[in-house]
Design a protein that fits this description.
Layout (H helix, E strand, L loop, with lengths): L1 H20 L20 H17 L6 H4 L8 H29 L2 H27 L3
Amino acid sequence: MRKLFIAVFMFVSSFGSNVMADGHSIKMGIILGFTGPIESLTPAMAASAELAFKEASDSGSLSGTSLLVLSYKEEEKFKAQGFNDLIVYTVQAIASLSAGIFISLTSWKTMNLVCIIFLIIIIVSTFRADLKQRSPL
């Protein structure tokens, strides 16, 4: 069972990195109710979503991984992208598979407190990185 899980995980990981690496466009969408009580608001919501998607797409940096490879040599870019995808997909798989277990063992209050700790760590590390970048060498 373990070998099957690893094989499926590696297959899915390689598919995800190939889709991003070969430059094909990724279709994005939004689900809106064009009938019902908010049908008069839906066209404006759809237009704003299309504008947001267009602006994000035109910026050229839709995904953070396009910025990741800028700091690597040309021959290292694909290895860095692949390693980054492996880490991202591994964390997502572990989080998805363990979410039910943690919720059943603890309460929502505990889960929120744990998330706040990680949020504080992220904020502090972001500020530290920003300060290091601003300081003259």
